């Protein structure tokens, strides 16, 4: 427990510092979506009577395909913030692979958001070695930190968001979960 708390505090401090010092006007211009114009979602989603809209973004997959969150309207999205060096993140990946392979891909998708994981080539090699069969999104560190802030201040990883077909954030999961937990929640919002 102490180790997990230390990791969470370290990541939280890194995200805070990264968010404060790495988001520059030139970095914001390089993003295809005006991240500064969007409102951050609250950190306590379950208490919200009106579920917040998920902040839209435009990033590239490791293969270079441009992806927007809004492209997935009509589908349930699991938006997973993770890193290659994160042990609990590695625990979840096989379940995401299994869910992507065995579940209704017309109504459901997992999107992996890499944070502090090295170069695109390093992340690509990791994804290939793990057999990740879902879109893994990669962006400049400053853009990824700003997205983490918009999603309620991601303070630990893995952090996953359940987004309904209308683009509303229904749940926030801090820490790893198993496929059964995710799938039960996904079915509830399909």
Notes on the structure:
The chain is α/β, with parallel strands linked by helices and 190 residues long. The protein has a single domain, classed as Glutaredoxin, CATH 3.40.30. The chain is 39% helix and 18% strand. It has six helices and seven strands. Strands 2-1-5-4-3-6-7 form a seven-stranded mixed β-sheet, with helices on one face. α1 (2-21) packs across α5 (141-150). The radius of gyration is 15 Å and the shape is globular. The model is unreliable at 1-33 (pLDDT under 50).
Number of helices: 6
Shape: globular
Radius of gyration: 15 Å
CATH architecture: 3-Layer(aba) Sandwich
Strand content: 15-25%
The major pleated sheet works out as: 7 strands, mixed
- What is the assembly state of the chains in this entry? single chain
Count of extended strands? 7
When the domains are counted, the total is 1
Strand order of the largest sheet: 2-1-5-4-3-6-7
Q: Any idea of the CATH topology?
A: Glutaredoxin
Give helix and strand order, one letter per element, not per position: HHEEEHEHEHEEH
């Amino acid at each position: 427990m102490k180790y997990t708390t230390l990791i969470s505090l370290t990541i939280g401090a890194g995200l805070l510092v990264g968010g404060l010092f790495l988001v520059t006007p030139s970095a914001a211009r390089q993003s295809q979506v005006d991240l500064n114009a969007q409102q951050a979602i609250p950190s306590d989603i379950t208490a919200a009577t009106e579920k917040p809209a998920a902040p839209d973004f435009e990033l590239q997959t490791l293969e270079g395909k441009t992806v927007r969150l809004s492209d997935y309207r009509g589908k349930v999205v699991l938006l997973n913030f993770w890193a290659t060096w994160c042990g609990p993140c590695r625990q979840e990946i096989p379940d995401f692979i299994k869910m992507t392979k065995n579940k209704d891909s017309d109504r459901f998708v997992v999107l992996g958001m890499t944070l502090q994981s090295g170069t695109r080539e390093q992340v690509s090699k990791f994804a290939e070695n793990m057999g990740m069969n879902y879109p893994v999104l990669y962006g400049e560190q400053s853009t990824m930190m700003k997205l983490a802030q918009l999603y309620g201040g991601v303070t630990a990883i893995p952090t996953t968001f359940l987004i309904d077909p209308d683009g509303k954030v229904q749940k926030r999961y801090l820490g790893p979960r198993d496929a059964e937990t995710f799938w039960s929640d996904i079915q509830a919002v399909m």
